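Hi V.,

You were right to ask for the full record rather than a summary. Here it is.
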Amino acid sequence: MKLEQPVKIIIWGAPVSGKGTQSELIEKNYGLVHMAAGDLLRAEVAAETENGKRAKEYREKGMLVPDEVVVTIVKARLSQLDAEESGWVLDGYLRSLSQANALQDLGVRPDMFILLEVSEESLIERVVGRRLDPVTGKMYHLKYST
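Predicted structure:
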């Protein structure tokens, strides 16, 4: 179902809470562009852009990538034509107040904010059974994936 107006959604939750899964469903059912902040960072690193090189330096030291780098990467992706025309669901972004302020300063205001609340017990079960397929790069769960 294609929406009449582009909708902007931020989805947030703990690691393994289902942000990626829910974002993919939203993308599939409503035609929004799914953007995962981690995927955007990895793509910049793989493309060896200036921001990618900076991100790689921090990651190799075991440090968080600075907000200014992440904001620049996310901003660039949000301004691409497909995102502007179709709307977007942003997954795994807004990890700090400065990131939220940066989006606001850019005039980016989501229409919806989805918070996934999952019990600690469920999160532990999900993370313990989570695997990465080395061939496809897709995440799956030993118990729940078919």
